[in-house]
Amino acid sequence: MTTEEGESKVSFPSSNLQHITKVNHVCFLHIDIDRKSLENYFGYSKKNTVMVINVHFMADDGKKNIGHLKDDFTYKDFIDMVNKLYGPNSHTVFTLVAKSKDLCADDEVKFNKQKHLITNSVNIFVGRRMIGGR
Fold first, then answer.
1. Does residue 31 have a pLDDT over 80?
2. Does residue 52 surpass a pLDDT of 50?
3. pLDDT for the residue numbered 24
């Protein structure tokens, strides 16, 4: 389907629609879509697309931050994002919890086992570590 300006339009199931934002008479559709659906709807392949994972951080003082990762992120990518948001070596100072599980950000091997918990729009709770605690 095309618009009168010749731009292509693609339809997707309404279940993927999260919300609509209107800014200066322009509507932005926020959709939750996985790579397979992206390939089906838009004809993209994994070789030439990068999905972005939006990560929501909630600190114990109520402050919120948002970070972004590529869908094929590494431990280093995640640690760099956390340290950029909360300061140098913050991955060793804070406990990071996603979906009720500790991400073990201070240990790369353990983190890689928990990495599957970091999905688009995940909430990660940030708490200060206690001395002698994990």
1. no
2. yes
3. 56
According to DSSP, the β-strands at 64-70 and 52-59 are antiparallel
**How far apart are alpha carbons 11 and 8 in whole angstroms?**
10
User: What backbone phi and psi angles, to 5 degrees, belong to 83?
Assistant: -65, -30
Q: How many CB atoms lie within 10 A of CB 105?
A: 22
* Whole-prediction pTM: 0.63
> What dotted CATH number matches 52-128?
3.10.20.90
